[in-house]
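Box 3.1 — From sequence to structure: Hemerythrin
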Amino acid sequence: MNSFTALRESHDIQRELCAKVTNTQGESSERDSLFQQLVRELKAHARAEERFFYLPLMEYDQGVDLSRHAIAEHHEMDELIEQLQATEYSSPTWLVYAKQLSDLVVHHLQEEEHRFFQMAGKLLSAEEKVQLVKGYNQDYQNGLQEF
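Predicted structure (token representation):
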């Protein structure tokens, strides 16, 4: 498995969870469960991705701006998650924030899959990709257990 396959698998999970979360209603165990799964997935993925893809790519001049932009989007997601956690599930604004988070996540994933993957494919050697995916997978799995 190369690095892009590992990232795409997590991306697919994120898309699915975003769609499910934004289709929930009110104060429900379903909303709570799906939201907690989404938060865990986003946090584990972002941490592993920042450590094992963005930081190594920042060693290259061409990778700095795109990596910094992606990290900034992760920060925006964290802020929306905090807003959601501070809002009652039954509040109409909860769904508004959830849709904002979903839109940001989908935008971020599309940007990564089209711009980030192409650039990383050019900058990183085949050996680097294999090493980075090993680190990513381990950190991602650990993150799923922690968050």
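Summary of the box: The radius of gyration is 16 Å.
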